[in-house]
């Protein structure tokens, strides 16, 4: 048997064999040469989910594979865009996240969160954020040869985070020649322009290969105001805010809110202000620019020892844009020049009764041009190692050792924030001096450099000098460093009735460290934006694993193949201690055409640096107060009784508009150094059928179930409130202690002003469903060659418990803001080739989902599909969001000069996403496509 991996097999035959197969169903064929010739000797490769090298790419675990050609047929510029479309992915961060996004994009298999999906590059861990997730935008699509998605737990093979599954991105290697590509695309509405360029060159000798690559991607923005669904208009006015221009104030005499008319006279706020529409000021699709350099090389030192190295540099520049900062809750001094009760001031005492301090002064400073959040993220990756094989008697063993270094540095600039200390000065006493200049302070006690503000003036009344004094630019920085050493060995031990007993074993050392340094003003709590304290921490670990492949039977009746796989991994962490995780799997072929497979595996997810060491951070949370008179929960007698006991009046109305209102005061996110790892159990059972009577056809069907305990979770504001007011007595004791109300809050008494939102090992999950993949490559016809791929995931159960004693919350088929739980995700692709021409037509289907209706009474009847729904605790109206099917098409032509021209369109029929009553922003969820038909052209030239 040969033991060195033949490059032509590993990087030529394999991608071709799986180009249209989304499950590992095709075995390597034998040589079909002249009669009497010997079967082709097959090299052994390492398949995702196992460290044992083998010639058979079928495993006991379901694997979804995307080739380079399939990625290019989807007409996108990021590998994240491809992976977020696959049927087994749930809700993950992407560039449609503006408020709450940071330019990164991830993957969340089974909707279990980005941190529970392990991302590898060439079988090795990739750099993560402080929160433990991988930004797929750090991996340029131009360097990818194929992507393998293991839809099973794999902590025994790869360690922490491999709970929901593993994404293994295989880069181009052993490339000889040169290739260049260009891509241009734009929405049919004339925005969202994208361009991408890449160049790859490689050269080989008998002993070495070097591949160099560079890529550049620029994606421009789309404004929320440029799409009707997100423009903030009717029917729900989702972009409306109660804070706008002109500014408003609460008069302490009658405790009513007013604005000033054009003559400076007070007018009741509600009579003239309908809200400020923030939507036109926001990005709907955020822009970014990515530049990448990549190098990979191999060198055969001897016939049995090779050296391999790879290096990558990636820079991302991205931005999010929000409406101008709303400055709320400040007080305007009685002797401020701009206080309308001051007879010596700008308004000449138009609000009578004598000079007095105004409370609850709110204004949106539109003159600042909005809040712009900018990221510059630089990622470095290096790997260097040796691999080879040696022989002991008649047995041969593969081995490898390596060192990996990853580092990410991020620098953030935020424009449009305000300095609280300077705002207080600008809102404080002020006067007109003898030169007619408005000064801060009092005569004889002028505050140097201060420029007074007029928060009650109309749009444009704030001077650039006043803005310069009151605002500031925040500078934040963070970095993450990951280093690791690995050593692995594998080979055959002894021959059993079904074949050779094989093993793999290894050791890994890894260290993770990171830090976040917020701007000094933000750390000191002097910003009108979210406050945050510094983060710094590190941990290290040692791991050992062993894996066995045990062939039991082969080529006997009802068992063409029967084997088992067994693995175990011991992990010792410097922070929480050790953990042991094991796995058992089997493969059984009762006959050649049918493979039955199954797995049972344990898994874990270690706490991240942010989980353990993140500094306290402010967060403006969206929620609907159960004590608000317009909340459906207030009709529950239990809720009403508790609200009354807290002194909340029956006519209390939470300030703001819409279904999910944002708190006026920031809540606090906290970390926890005492966190323990999450633990999981994953089960799969399935089959692959490849009938000999239908050549080119195969179907796979797999049942899966994931159970997670001790989950690290941060109870959200709405959850905390719902459990406090409508939960059991035990839940009330836990969650009611996390927040407090202020009965004397200026202008809005009894609002919730403080809430701690800690990380705890409290939650658990149970997720179950089915995956099905059908592939059919039809025989050649006079009309060309057709291939069909249909990949579907069905979630039969997705439930979670906030605590061990809590009732399970069923989420399958439901929508939570930015977190849809589709029962069915399905992708159907039809591919056609004929000579130099080709075309692909795809359909991406998402089933309908239900959301809680935020309205009551007539509004519920008007806007909710099931307004009369009731549960045991009272009214619980719901709204149904319909199913969506996106159609994509691409046409290709291979030129005589070895080039390929492709033109295509995604969302050909301009399908809008379903309108949501509870989406945080834009009236639709960011997991759906941005509205509009996206058209593109791409060209690839090979030399």
Written account of the structure:
It is a multi-pass membrane protein. Its main location: membrane. There is one protein chain. The protein is 9% helix and 47% strand. By secondary structure, it is mainly β. It has 3 domains: 7-223 and 285-321 and 374-392 and 404-413 and 477-607 and 676-714 and 760-848 and 883-942, TonB-dependent receptor, beta-barrel domain (Maltoporin, Chain A); 240-277 and 326-364 and 420-462, no CATH class; 612-675 and 715-758, no CATH class. The strands form 11 sheets. It has a 22-stranded antiparallel β-barrel. Strand 7 and strand 8 (208-219) form a beta hairpin. Helix 11 crosses helix 12 (729-735). The longest helix has 11 residues, at 7-17. It is globular and about 100 Å long.
Task: Identify the notable features of this structure and list them briefly.
22-stranded antiparallel barrel, five-stranded mixed sheet, Maltoporin, Chain A, disordered N terminus, 943 residues, mainly beta, 3 domains, single chain, 52 strands
Question: How would you concisely characterize the structure shown here?
Answer:
With 943 residues, this protein is mainly beta. Helix 11 (717-726) crosses helix 12.
